C-alpha cells in the first residue's frame, strides 16, 4: 500500500470579504487499503481528497505520496493516484467507450492496434466489452460510472480516489459500482454519503466545517457522525463543495 | 438514452474508406471541399451531393445516422439558402444549400470511418516537426478531440436546460434558457478540465 501523508495541509481561499478556510491544516497518514470519507455537503471532504492527486494545491503544509511531494511532482503522483468524479459525464471525453479508455492508454501504449486490444481488455474486466463502439452518451448512469472507472484504472494506478461515485445512481447500479470498487486490487479512498458503503472501509474519516473531526475504525467514526447529525451538529457548511 | 447528435461517432467497419489511413482521407476531404466551393454550378452541386451520398453508402453509414448527423446542418443550410434566395435568386440558394449538405455528408464519412484516436495519432505525427518551436502535439490533438467530443455533450446540456426551464414554467424567453445554459457549459468545461488533469492528460 502507498503511504499518503498530509503534513499540516490546509486550503484557504482569498476574499472578499475575508480569507475563508476550506480545509484547516490537517495532519494524517493514510496507509489502509480501504479508507472512507464521510461528512455533510460543503464540509470540505472533496477538497481533502482532491489534495491527494494535486487537483487542489494546499495553501499551507504539504501532501506526500510515499515521500513524493504532490505539489512539486504532480504529474508523477497523478500516474499513481487515479481520481473518479461524482458525475462521469464530465470525465468521459471521447465519443465511444473504447476510444475513451484508449485515451488513457495513449501515454503508455504507442501502437494503435495494441492500444485498442488493451482497451477492450480493460472494458471486458468491467463487463463493458460489448459496448466498446457505443457512444458514451448512449450509456446508462451505471455504465457511465463503470466506464469512468475503467478509464482511470486502465493506467493501473496504486491508489484510486472516488468522490461520491454512487450519488447519482439507482440501487442496482450503486451495488454494481460498489461491488466493483471493493473488488479492486488498489488502495481505495472513497468519499461517500452512503454509510453502508463507508461501513465496508477499514478506516473512516469524518469531515465537518473544513476539519477532520473523527478518524478511526468505520463503526466508531460512522457512529460519531450519525450522533453529530442527530444532535444538530455541523453537517458541513464550511466548504465550497469542491 | 441521450438525445444528443451523433457527430464524431465512429462506425466500425472494413470498407475501403475504413482501411484508408487518416492522412489521405483528410487531404481528400480538403480537396473535395475546395472543389465544391469553387465550382459555381447548380447541376454540379447535385452531382457532388450524389457522389457524397454514394461514398456514405459505401462507408456503411446508416440512413438513421445520416439523417441525425446532417439535420442540424440542413437547418442551417435552409436559413442560409433563404438569405441567398433573397439576395441572389433561386439557383444560387439551391446551389448553396446542396453544397453545404454535400460537405456535411463528406465530413460524416470521415468521422464515421476514422476512430478519433487514429486522428489523434495522425495529428501528433503531423505536428511533430513543430515541437522545436514550442508546439505540444499531444495537447493540440487532445484539444481537437475535445472539440469533437464536446458537440454531443453541448446538445445534451442544451436539451436538459430547455427542459428545466419548461419545468419551471419559464416559457420560451431566450434569457430564461441561455443564461443557465452558458453557466452550465462553463461549469462542464471546468469539470472536464479537472477530469483531464486527474487522468494525467496534458501533464
From TrEMBL, chain A:
<dbReference type="InterPro" id="IPR015856">
    <property type="entry name" value="ABC_transpr_CbiO/EcfA_su"/>
</dbReference>
<protein>
    <submittedName>
        <fullName>ABC transporter ATP-binding protein</fullName>
    </submittedName>
</protein>
<feature type="domain" description="ABC transporter">
    <location>
        <begin position="4"/>
        <end position="234"/>
    </location>
</feature>
<dbReference type="InterPro" id="IPR017871">
    <property type="entry name" value="ABC_transporter-like_CS"/>
</dbReference>
<keyword id="KW-0813">Transport</keyword>
<dbReference type="InterPro" id="IPR027417">
    <property type="entry name" value="P-loop_NTPase"/>
</dbReference>
<dbReference type="InterPro" id="IPR003593">
    <property type="entry name" value="AAA+_ATPase"/>
</dbReference>
<dbReference type="InterPro" id="IPR050095">
    <property type="entry name" value="ECF_ABC_transporter_ATP-bd"/>
</dbReference>
<comment type="similarity">
    <text>Belongs to the ABC transporter superfamily.</text>
</comment>
<dbReference type="GO" id="GO:0016887">
    <property type="term" value="F:ATP hydrolysis activity"/>
</dbReference>
<dbReference type="InterPro" id="IPR003439">
    <property type="entry name" value="ABC_transporter-like_ATP-bd"/>
</dbReference>
<keyword id="KW-0547">Nucleotide-binding</keyword>
<dbReference type="GO" id="GO:0042626">
    <property type="term" value="F:ATPase-coupled transmembrane transporter activity"/>
</dbReference>
<keyword id="KW-0067">ATP-binding</keyword>
<dbReference type="Pfam" id="PF00005">
    <property type="entry name" value="ABC_tran"/>
</dbReference>
<dbReference type="GO" id="GO:0005524">
    <property type="term" value="F:ATP binding"/>
</dbReference>
<dbReference type="GO" id="GO:0043190">
    <property type="term" value="C:ATP-binding cassette (ABC) transporter complex"/>
</dbReference>
TrEMBL record, chain B:
<keyword id="KW-0812">Transmembrane</keyword>
<feature type="transmembrane region" description="Helical">
    <location>
        <begin position="72"/>
        <end position="88"/>
    </location>
</feature>
<feature type="transmembrane region" description="Helical">
    <location>
        <begin position="140"/>
        <end position="159"/>
    </location>
</feature>
<dbReference type="Pfam" id="PF02361">
    <property type="entry name" value="CbiQ"/>
</dbReference>
<feature type="transmembrane region" description="Helical">
    <location>
        <begin position="100"/>
        <end position="120"/>
    </location>
</feature>
<feature type="transmembrane region" description="Helical">
    <location>
        <begin position="46"/>
        <end position="66"/>
    </location>
</feature>
<keyword id="KW-0472">Membrane</keyword>
<dbReference type="GO" id="GO:0005886">
    <property type="term" value="C:plasma membrane"/>
</dbReference>
<protein>
    <submittedName>
        <fullName>Energy-coupling factor transporter transmembrane protein EcfT</fullName>
    </submittedName>
</protein>
<keyword id="KW-1133">Transmembrane helix</keyword>
<dbReference type="InterPro" id="IPR003339">
    <property type="entry name" value="ABC/ECF_trnsptr_transmembrane"/>
</dbReference>
Amino acid at each position: 500500500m502507498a503511504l499518503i501523508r498530509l503534513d499540516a495541509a490546509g486550503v484557504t481561499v482569498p476574499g472578499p470579504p475575508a480569507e475563508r478556510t476550506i480545509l484547516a491544516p490537517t495532519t494524517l497518514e493514510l496507509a489502509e487499503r480501504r479508507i472512507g470519507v464521510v461528512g455533510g455537503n460543503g464540509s470540505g471532504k472533496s477538497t481533502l481528497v482532491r489534495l491527494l492527486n494535486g487537483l487542489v494545491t494546499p495553501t499551507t503544509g504539504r501532501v506526500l505520496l510515499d515521500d513524493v511531494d504532490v505539489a512539486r511532482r504532480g504529474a508523477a503522483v497523478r500516474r499513481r493516484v487515479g481520481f473518479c468524479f461524482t458525475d462521469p459525464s464530465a470525465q468521459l471525453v471521447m465519443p465511444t467507450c473504447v476510444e475513451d479508455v484508449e485515451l488513457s492508454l495513449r501515454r503508455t501504449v504507442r501502437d494503435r492496434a495494441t492500444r485498442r486490444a488493451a482497451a477492450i481488455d480493460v472494458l471486458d474486466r468491467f463487463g463493458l466489452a460489448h459496448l466498446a463502439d457505443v457512444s458514451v452518451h448512449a450509456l446508462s448512469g451505471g455504465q457511465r460510472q463503470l466506464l469512468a472507472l475503467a478509464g482511470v484504472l486502465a493506467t493501473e494506478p496504486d491508489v484510486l480516489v472516488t468522490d461520491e461515485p454512487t450519488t447519482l445512481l439507482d440501487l442496482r447500479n450503486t451495488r454494481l459500482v460498489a461491488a466493483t470498487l471493493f473488488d479492486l486490487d488498489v488502495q481505495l479512498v472513497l468519499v461517500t454519503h452512503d454509510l453502508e458503503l463507508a461501513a465496508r472501509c477499514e478506516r473512516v474519516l469524518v469531515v465537518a466545517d473544513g476539519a477532520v473531526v473523527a478518524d478511526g475504525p468505520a463503526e466508531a467514526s460512522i457512529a460519531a457522525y450519525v450522533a453529530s447529525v442527530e444532535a444538530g451538529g455541523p453537517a458541513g457548511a464550511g466548504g465550497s463543495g469542491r | 438514452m441521450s438525445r444528443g447528435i451523433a457527430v464524431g461517432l465512429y462506425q466500425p467497419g472494413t470498407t475501403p474508406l475504413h482501411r484508408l489511413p487518416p492522412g489521405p482521407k483528410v487531404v481528400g476531404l480538403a480537396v473535395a471541399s475546395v472543389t465544391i466551393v469553387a465550382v459555381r454550378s447548380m447541376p454540379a452541386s447535385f452531382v457532388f451531393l450524389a457522389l457524397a451520398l454514394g461514398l456514405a453508402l459505401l462507408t456503411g453509414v446508416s440512413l438513421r445516422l445520416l439523417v441525425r448527423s446532417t439535420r442540424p446542418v440542413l437547418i442551417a443550410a435552409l436559413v442560409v439558402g433563404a438569405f441567398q434566395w433573397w439576395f441572389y435568386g433561386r439557383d444560387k440558394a439551391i446551389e448553396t444549400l446542396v453544397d453545404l449538405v454535400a460537405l456535411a455528408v463528406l465530413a460524416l464519412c470521415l468521422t464515421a470511418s476514422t476512430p478519433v484516436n487514429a486522428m489523434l495519432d495522425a495529428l501528433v505525427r503531423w505536428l511533430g516537426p513543430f515541437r522545436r518551436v514550442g508546439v505540444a502535439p499531444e495537447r493540440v490533438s487532445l484539444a481537437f478531440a475535445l472539440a469533437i467530443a464536446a458537440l454531443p455533450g453541448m446538445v445534451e446540456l442544451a436539451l436538459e436546460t430547455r427542459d428545466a426551464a419548461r419545468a419551471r414554467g419559464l416559457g420560451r424567453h431566450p434569457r430564461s434558457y441561455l443564461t443557465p445554459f452558458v453557466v452550465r457549459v462553463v461549469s462542464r468545461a471546468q469539470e472536464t478540465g479537472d477530469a483531464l488533469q486527474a487522468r494525467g492528460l496534458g501533464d
